[in-house]
Write a structure and sequence with these properties.
Keywords: Chaperone, Guanine-nucleotide releasing factor. The chain is built from 24 helices and no strands. The chain has 493 residues and is mainly α. Among the domains are: 100 residues; 211 residues, no CATH class. Helix 14 packs antiparallel against helix 15 and helix 19 packs antiparallel against helix 20.
């Protein structure tokens, strides 16, 4: 049967709400009639046009009372669905719900071990975190909101089949409930930052779900719940003993690192440039946070050189091994090989993904121990220079000295027995290939000298690098002489 539209729909909605409001007073409807009326109202409420009575104060109050005061779980869930749709479609209804004072009952309902209740109530509270006066600290301190969220995450972690992360398929309702719980966790920790410690117990379950949940096989690997799991790492405190034990377990110190790197590798093969900012940037930021808080020995070097890996620094070593350029990458200019580090470096200057490229640059700076010398060694001065300039980090003289040594083939140009590397491109010097070009004419040499002179003068003015213009130096040393005009005329003759 086709639903009415226009004024007929408005009249039908008004009659349904009047019937339900009257039922709150006199209980004249049978349970089946009550549920049928709410189901019909839900269908009308999906489109707010000509459904105005649903979004009024009286309409929200009626739905709220059925949602939280009904003795029937079925009736309550029917009302919750209509209420969630209303709060989603009309932002002004969220404050109306908050003013009714039902947040405590919502938190109590969230304790139920039921995925429908978890999904609906989590979404309801989530929607009230936008543009309302809801008192989140009060819900955490007095109504155990944090405890309920942690308990729901624990239930999801317990139900995941261990050792079947590549083949198992989760139930749809369970997946939807998990996604809403994770979104609620992110918003509450974002808007109630002083109470983040109340959620310390969530990280062991987040780590378990992240690692044990079936690995995404779709073309969009950061679909729920992985995108929401990653977002939680950006808000929670990773320095607590519980967090350290969960994210860097002594028995499997690289477990979480492997999953994050696997997701990144899959994401970099799946998402186009236009989606990198929104979809992949949070994962890059999460990897930075994960790396910074990972246990590390003081003598660990954040470079591509080989270091001793112990349980204390295994997570960091695994991330560096996966993301820093390898010998394979350095056979050509960095960013040209078909590897994960090269795919990341290729996006360093991507104009379509400014947030992503900034996140990648900061990640590599973290992987370099936040040391400018190591940073240049790891990615090459060509990539590093822009980041250092934007963040007002001076280029150490050691970088320039090493560059000159390598260009001159002097002592110390390949420390530790490593092959010489072009400090600008990051490529091994003995792998560089140059085109066989004819010797430049005198006029071409003069133009090139003038161009270099201008470039070095501009570079000096930025203050990023303190270096003498080589053309100016050559003139001072008498190695360049200006030819008189007669020479040009003689040549023409």
């Amino acid at each position: 049967m086709a639903q009415p539209s226009g004024p007929a729909k408005l009249d039908a909605v008004r009659k349904l709400l009047n019937k339900l409001t009257e039922d709150l007073k006199s209980s004249t409807l049978q349970p089946q009639e009550r549920d049928a009326a709410l189901e019909e109202l839900k269908l009308y409420g999906r489109d707010p046009s000509y459904a105005d009575p649903i979004f009024t104060k009286e309409g929200i109050e009626t739905l709220t009372k059925f949602a939280f005061d009904s003795s029937s779980d079925t009736t309550s869930r029917h009302a919750l669905r209509v209420l969630c749709n209303a709060l989603f479609l009309k932002s002004e209804t969220r404050q109306i719900f908050v003013d009714l004072g039902y947040e405590a009952k919502a938190c109590e309902r969230l304790k139920n071990d039921n995925r429908d209740d978890e999904f609906l109530v989590s979404r309801l509270i989530l929607l009230t975190t936008y543009g309302t006066s809801i008192d989140l600290p009060k819900l955490i301190e007095q109504h155990q909101l944090a405890d309920s969220i942690i308990q729901n995450l624990a239930r999801h972690a317990e139900r995941l089949p261990k050792g079947q992360s590549t083949t198992a398929t989760a139930a749809p309702m369970r997946e939807m409930a998990l996604a809403e719980t994770l979104k609620l966790l992110f918003n509450v920790t974002n808007f109630a930052k002083k109470h983040i410690s109340a959620f310390d117990g969530a990280l062991p379950h987040i780590a378990s779900i992240l690692c044990d949940h079936p690995f995404p096989q779709s073309k969009t690997p950061l679909d729920p719940p992985f995108n929401f799991l990653i977002n939680t790492l950006l808000n929670l405190d990773l320095t607590t003993p519980a967090a350290q034990a969960a994210l860097y377990p002594p028995a499997e110190p690289t477990r979480v690192a492997e999953r994050l790197l696997g997701l990144l590798d899959s994401a970099m093969k799946s998402y186009p440039d236009s989606q990198l900012d929104q979809e992949v940037s949070p994962l890059i930021c999460a990897l930075s946070v994960f790396y910074r808080h990972a246990p590390a020995e003081e003598d660990t070097k954040a470079t591509t050189t080989t270091t001793t890996t112990t349980p204390a620094n295994a997570a960091r070593a695994r991330v560096r091994a996966a993301l820093l350029p390898t010998d394979e990458d350095r056979h050509t200019v960095l960013g040209k090989a078909d590897t994960l580090p090269s795919r990341l470096l290729r996006n360093w200057t991507n104009p379509l993904a400014p947030q992503f490229r900034s996140a990648v640059a900061h990640l590599y700076f973290d992987l370099s121990g936040r040391d400018a010398v190591r940073f240049v060694e790891n990615v090459g001065y060509g990539y590093a220079s822009g980041f250092l300039f934007e963040n007002k980090i001076s280029v150490p003289e050691e970088v320039m000295r090493r560059q000159q040594q390598q260009q001159q083939g002097g002592e110390g140009s390949a420390a530790g027995g490593r092959r010489d590397v072009n400090p600008i491109t990051g490529q091994f010097l003995d792998d560089e290939k140059f085109p066989d070009l004819p010797e430049m004419t005198m006029e071409e040499k003069e133009r090139e000298a003038e161009r270099l002179f201008v470039l070095f003068e501009r570079l000096k003015q930025t203050g990023v690098v303190s270096v003498q213009n080589p053309v100016e130096k050559a003139v001072q040393e008498g190695r360049i002489q200006e030819l008189p005009d007669d020479d040009e005329e003689d040549d023409l003759d």
